[in-house]
Amino acid sequence: MFCYQCEQTDRSGASPGCGGPVGNCGKNAITSDLQDLLLHAVKGIAQYATRARALGVPDDEASEFILYAVFTTLTNVNFNPTRFAGLLREAAAVRDRVRARYEQAARARGLEPETPGGPAAWNPEPDQDGLRAQAATRGVLAGLDIAGADVVGLRNLHLYALKGICAYAYHACVLGHRRPEIFAEIEKAFAYLAEDPADADELFERALGLGRLNLSVIELLDAANTGTFGAQRPTAVRVTPVKGKAILVSGHDLRDLAALLEQTAGTGINVYTHGEMLPAHAYPKLKAYPHLVGNYGGAWHDQQREFAAFPGPILMTSNCIIEPHASYRRRIFTAGPVGWPGVRHIADHDFTPLIQAAKATPGFTEDGPEEYITVGFARDSVLAVSDRVVEAVKQGAIRHFFLIGGCDGPTPGRDYYRELALALPQDTVILTLGCAKYRFNRHDFGEIGGIPRLLDVGQCNDSHSAIKIAMALADAFGCGINELPLTLTLAWTEQKAIAVLLTLLALGVQDIRVGPQPPAFLTPALAERLADRFGLRVIGDVRADLASALERA
Q1: DSSP for 279-343?
Q2: Which helix (H) or strand (E) holds 448?
Q3: What is the pTM of this model?
Q4: Which of 84, 158, 428, 549 could form a disulfide with 487 if both were Cys (CB 3.0 to 4.6 A apart)?
Q5: Closest CA to 539 of 398, 406, 437
Q6: What share of the chain is helix, strand, coil (3-state, %, to 5)?
Q7: Confidence category of residue 284, pLDDT binned at 50, 70, 90
Q8: H or E element at residue 402
Q9: What do you get for the CA distance between the two ends of the chain, in Å?
Q10: Would you state the pLDDT for residue 468?
């Protein structure tokens, strides 16, 4: 096992990376190895899928399989080696189907079919030991001795960005929103990696191309969410319990939440959101369910304590699961790409077992004191008052905007984001998205001329909203994004954040601060290159960083 894809990466050794029997996320060596092999298999599918698509015979089912398979390899998504062994066999079958499709189309056109090597020629061993043996030479450090650390780091920048892109595309896909051109670009990117590219300059520029691809993907996801559930509206969300039976939903998948709300309607069971599901309360078609009563807990890394105290079953959707404690292991269920050994998985959106568990558990025995936070300041809500925002800036009432967002996590240094938010002057506005907001979203920041100083844009999945808001403000002031009184400070944990970062860089955004630590797969030379070209740097001292930001105001 070797993994360094997320901010939890072990940095105690001479070089960063999780090895040994278990990574810092809880992923064991077997699962890690099988994930590496699954990504190798995906590259093989892509090698044939690109050829089939070029001949006009795309296989969209294969494309959707790629999205799902890759999603399972993100940080804190699936820890079940049995599921991965099954996915590997399925990957080989999908590859064979796409290959046959391609070969038939080629011969029909009088062409001799190509037979690509590398991942396209891989076939799974029949047992887990054999699969792990295959994985030994196909991990993320493959080719290090030949290509060098910088090239391998760039390859993994591609790989991890693609993980984020596939996750976002999967979220859109399950809501019925697909674009063939997105499938095509994802396949091309994996096929490119299958060739073990070694040109560092080409890899760097193509990484920015992935950022542009991700912009299209998050735009599609925005359309999927708003088209299905309506545009987010500012909404006061209760953050204290309501008496009654209860189910808690965590992760990101709005479709799963919608299905559960429909199935629990009229049962007397209250549904609560957790973590990145908080923005669900702002969607009209979801908030219309009166038994979606509030938000419980905070960011994903606190779930072991929070889930243990919750008096009902928990549904974990899409990502952010960590090892369930014995106190709630029998009360937690997974759905979609999520998995944990021994935890019940709901694969068909029939939540009857979850509902039965809710009826059998006590729920909350009394109401808590009423406390609320306000969410729902996605692009439509903010742009609806853009004229007031612009006027407030022109009049000097708003001096600067700070976007403080991204993933929260358990690693040291993350109090920075709370300290920064609380240190901001009263004439500044905070935009936030992702679960990093839980560091400060219960603080009363007040208003500026009726405009809340804290604007919760939504999930990390709502990054497109934040980008559209910035673009709209730039248009209103007749300037570029980099000329706005705007500072971006991002916390990162997993691969969706890498995809969004590349999108911002592809748009030319300068002087982004990331932290608490730089991605482990970025070598010093790559980090320096990003700093030189984009001003990308790691967060430092709150007061110094704040002073530097306001100097540009």
Answers
A1: GGGGSHHHHTSTTEEEE-S-SGGGHHHHHHH-SS-EEEESS---PPPTTTGGGEEEETT-B-TTS
A2: strand 447-448
A3: 0.97
A4: 549
A5: 406
A6: 50, 15, 35
A7: very high
A8: strand 400-406
A9: 47
A10: 96
